[in-house]
Amino acid sequence: MTSDVATAGFRDPGHLCGWLHDRREAPDAKNTVLRVLLAMATGEGPRSTLAVELLILALWPGLTTIRRRLRPISGADIQTLEADLVGRLSLGIRGARVDRVQRVAATLLRNTDRDLRRDLILEQAARLRAAELGAVAHGLEASVAQEDDRLVARMMMTLGEDGALLAAVHLCGWSQKDAAECLGISHDAARKRCQRAIARLKTMSG
């Protein structure tokens, strides 16, 4: 253990993680220790690597909850999904702005959920064949479906995040509210962007 964590009274990583996972311990005290680890993780050298590993272990119960929520849309086995979760969390830890993070666990887990959910939506949409996408478009607007292949290609290439939103709602079966939360926007903004994207599809098909 590093001196920073040792001074908090922990004998080893197992002792630390056990304490962090204990629901009887005070949340504010846990957050203080997590902030120490996050500050170390965003630094350099062996201390940084160790801190990242400890944060992943500390947040593992939260990752399992995210895994359960994302499993239905992932299309991957549990091991692959877990690897994706750990990778995304590691990136979030390394790129965190410590001075802007108040509640470490909540912030890192929320960002991991949001970012990986967005990736999975885009990957799932990309895996679908153009004909399948055209069939979905037909269910939305008959005029849009008349240009199946070209509309699909244009949607994925030109609509950007609006295209991801359409994919989430009309391909993956998400509600606009859930898709909005995933993309970090309001429900009203998601509704308007869906309408805007469909209007753009109509224009491109004309």
How would you summarize this macromolecular structure in one to three sentences?
The chain is built from 13 helices and no strands. By secondary structure, the protein is an all-alpha fold.
Task: Report on the architecture of this protein.
This protein has two domains: 3-122, no CATH class; 128-205, Arc Repressor Mutant, subunit A, CATH 1.10.10. The chain is 78% helix and 0% strand. The chain contains 13 helices and no strands. Helix 3 (27-41) packs antiparallel against helix 4 (46-58), helix 5 crosses helix 6 and helix 11 crosses helix 13. 27% of the residues are buried.
Protein topology:
Blueprint: H1 3-6, H2 13-21, H3 27-41, H4 46-58, H5 60-74, H6 78-94, H7 104-127, H8 130-140, H9 142-145, H10 148-158, H11 161-171, H12 176-183, H13 187-205
**Mean of pLDDT:** 77
Overall number of strands: 0
Unreliably modeled segments: 129-149
Rg estimate, integer Å? 21 Å
Strand content is under 5%
Rough outline: elongated
Q: Find the structural class using helix and strand composition.
A: mainly alpha
Key phrases:
Arc Repressor Mutant, subunit A, 13 helices, single chain, 206 residues, 2 domains, mainly alpha
